[in-house]
Amino acid sequence: MGKWRYGVVLDAGSSGTRVHVYQWLRNPIARQKAGPEELKSLPEIKTKEAWTKKIRPGVSSFAHKPELIGPDHLAELLDHAKSIIPAEDAKDTPIFLLATAGMRLLGNLERQILLDQICSFARHNSDFLLPDCGAHIQVIPGVTEGLYGWIATNYLMGAFDAPEKHDHGKGHNTYGFLDMGGASAQIAFAPNATEAEKHAEDLKLLRLRNIDGSTQEHRVFVTSWLEFGVHEARRRYLEAMQTAAGPSVKELPDPCLPSGLRTALDGKDVSGNEVEPYLLGTGKFDECLRQTFPLLDKDAPCADDPCLLNGIHVPAIDFDVNHFIGISEYWHTTHEIFEMGHKDKAYDFNTYQERVDSFCSQDWDSIERGLEKHKWGKKIDRQKAHEVCFKASWIINMLHDGIGVPRIGLEDTTSSTHNGTKEVLAHGKEKGYLDAFQAVNKIDSTEVSWTLGKIVLYASSQVPLDIEQALPVGFGSNVQGIPDDFQYPSVQLLPDADGFHSEHWHDALFDGDSPRRIPGFVLFMLIIVMAGFFLCGRSRRSRVFNHVSNVLRRGGPSHPNHPKKRKGIKKILPFLGRSATYERVLEDGAQEYDLGTIESDGSEDGGRLSEAGSAKLGPPKRASSWGSNSNTPSFKYALDNTSTGTIGLGISGGSNGSGIAMDRAGLVVRTESRDHLAPIALGPTTNGRRSRTGSPTRSHGQKSPSMTPLADD
């Protein structure tokens, strides 16, 4: 085991899954190397660009083929992580797959099946630390994604470790966080002191731990807008356009597409009119801005004032101290085309909008020629050129009309020569961090991703406490101590972690490491057997018990003349055999015969006659065939109770039928046919003895293997 610890986080987004590998020093080593100031800082997380890998499509696309998500999707990502992390450190390396908005849009059953498949595949195809599926493989809510992003942003900006260097005024030293993906958008920020006090119940309490074991706390507002990501916004935009045009219109003019571009509703090119309806680009960006504005739903009812958009409550934002960092689409849409096409890097709102308008008003043929010459870089393909005009209009509306960012400029990185943002930090310091918004992709060569926030939280939680009474790392409601909804970075940190068991029964039984796994499996199988037994029906239960009882009596197959004297299961558990067999005693004076057992007919009363029915029956009669030498069985058993020969129990006497006996309660009992009886004397006098008062005398002759003498019980 080396000096480093590792962590693996898979960001399962709507359009693809990206694996991130992170590294940090083990705490004893970090403490030895840290100076006095560094001891009061969080663990230092390291990563490399080569340690990140993204594949498409998103995991939600496997909803109808979940069995393929492992070999066709996860295998490549796991192999990438295993190629980076030393084999001896794998078992100490936690792995998390955290799915976002794409999975949130699935149904509960589809979502859970996918998560189970992911966890099972990860456990069987890697040695990474995965103690609980529910905690490590999950769909995280938008507010959690936003909080992780806020942690990552402020961690990379240095606001946690050196707050004095990030003084925004009014004692404020953290940055706000804006993220926009394909399906959702998030905002997270620490309100100013006035708003924080006014909306204290709306804030999240976040607790982190420094290298020396001391803690730091932050109170953050976080919210998420589902269906406000660029792809979901585009879907809502097209639905509104179709509704306004009506079903008969086949050609839909779209001001958010370059002039002359013809596409299907899904964005694919069409050469003619074979696809209906289709979109025809008009290249009018001002009109595009007007048509996307209603998607903000600014007029939605606000139950808890103030609200920004879609009726969702957000405390008032003080842009004097709240300065926002935008990532994901906020970066890509403002840079991928509109930076590469110009030598100068200065951006303000007017300049940005002019460049977007200039690009989007071009005819599509001109744009295609520019793509062939890589005018906007090699990363810009036809699909991105299709989408960028709508995305730009949506970004502008979200930033300025939705969130309310002042239109004073998006970013100014006059010395920027790459996608890193060391210059952004220097520029922010020079200006006193007065820019209300700046889009970034990397800070100090590290990509800004909410996955980093997850690992910062986890690594911080691994630092030993400086005092026993120190509060745990994690986040929850803004109350003192440990709130009821407090979320720990790992299941291992739960107060009852030693007794924790996975919420998935198959994990605990088959994949877990708990010593209780085998007894639990045995108990589970016993429950299944017992449930099947009681569901199989009374008649079948009778046959099962008779067979088991006979086996237990004899201890297995034995010679008919030497049965082993063992107690049956019905003697051990008599209540289990009540409806299975009956032992009846003949009336005094009746002929004495050995009796076999009979089976219950399965009726609710166990085959008993009513008292009225019993009274109508006369004394038992013997059939003359008992004394004959005929080998024909003396009883016929019928299921038809309507026959004139039956007496209500489905037993009918045939021409060769033998006698029917009754016990003292009037219950009819059949005797064995001669084929099943041992040869005994049938004369008026017997040489046997009674085994009990009123019971038949038993012969001392040969015993039938199908009978158990009462004396042997």
TrEMBL record:
Region ranges (Disordered): 596-631, 675-713
UniProt-listed GO biological process terms: CTP metabolic process; UDP catabolic process
Protein name as it appears in the record: Nucleoside diphosphatase
Stored PROSITE patterns: GDA1_CD39_NTPASE (PS01238)
Listed GO CC annotations: Golgi apparatus; membrane
Keyword field: ATP-binding, Hydrolase, Membrane, Nucleotide-binding, Transmembrane, Transmembrane helix
Lineage: Eukaryota, Fungi, Dikarya, Ascomycota, Pezizomycotina
Residues the record lists as binding ATP: G182, A183, S184, A185, Q186
Protein family: Belongs to the GDA1/CD39 NTPase family.
Biased composition (Low complexity): 683-699
Sequence intervals crossing the membrane: 518-536
Superkingdom of source: Eukaryota
Single GO molecular function: UDP phosphatase activity
